[in-house]
Amino acid sequence: MLKRTTRARQRGLSVIEMTMVVGVMAILAAMAVPSFSAWQGNTRIRASAEAINTGLSLARVEAVSRNTSVTFTLQSDGGWTVGCATVTAECPATIHSRSGAEIGSGSTLVLTQRDNNTATGSASVTFSSRGRPDTNSTSLRRVDIDAPSSIVPAAQSRELRIALNDFGQTRLCDPNAASGAPTAC
């Protein structure tokens, strides 16, 4: 009888196969990092915009529910404060607040007043007991939120805008969206 020689099955990867797998994974990771950075920066923009929009809505609701004037003050770092315009025992100077570190990390804010001038430092708007904003020229009208180009390249940045109308309603929109698009300003 003939003796059969059986080879033991090879298990695992050779050094060459392992090197190829690591090389392909490195190439894929290098391609994914810029996309991930842009996504992360745009997520910061969205989070900052939603936090500020929430603060504006909260100020309006507080004004109507308390039947008094309530002021929303936005700092250039993204922090905001909601408080009564006239402080009383029932209506404190600070009802709600958020710090800039909590909101605006990695975002750039441009605060525009009703007279179309850019506010420096902070801007505010006072809502009447009917929920309507004051219309004086230094009142906050618009907030543009973007990320620095060092974090997100300008071509990949998804800037957002919060616009406040004369009825106290806010709109979160994309100033760079095509005209007629649902997200356009």
The chain-level structural class is alpha+beta
Oligomer state equals single chain
Strand content: 15-25%
The overall number of domains is 1
Q: In CATH, what is the class? A: Alpha Beta
Strand order of the largest sheet: 3-2-1-5
What is the CATH T-level topology? minor pseudopilin epsh fold
Helix segment count? 2
Total strand segments: 8
Q: Which series of helices and strands comes N to C?
A: HEEEHEEEEE
CATH homologous superfamily title: minor pseudopilin epsh domain
Distance between the termini: 88 Å
- Specify the helix fraction band: 25-40%
Gross geometry: elongated
Going by CATH, the architecture would be 3-Layer(bab) Sandwich
Largest sheet properties: 4 strands, antiparallel
Spans of at least 5 consecutive residues with low confidence: none
Structure in words:
There is one protein chain. It is built from two helices and eight strands; from the N terminus they run H-E-E-E-H-E-E-E-E-E. The protein has one domain: minor pseudopilin epsh fold (3-Layer(bab) Sandwich). The longest helix has 52 residues, at 15-66. Strands 3-2-1-5 form a four-stranded antiparallel sheet. The chain has helices at 15-66, 100-103, and strands at residues 70-75, 80-84, 96-98, 108-113, 122-127, 140-146, 160-164, 170-173. By secondary structure, the chain is of the alpha+beta class.
Describe this protein with a few key phrases:
185 residues; alpha+beta; minor pseudopilin epsh fold; four-stranded antiparallel sheet; 2 helices; 8 strands; 30% helix; elongated
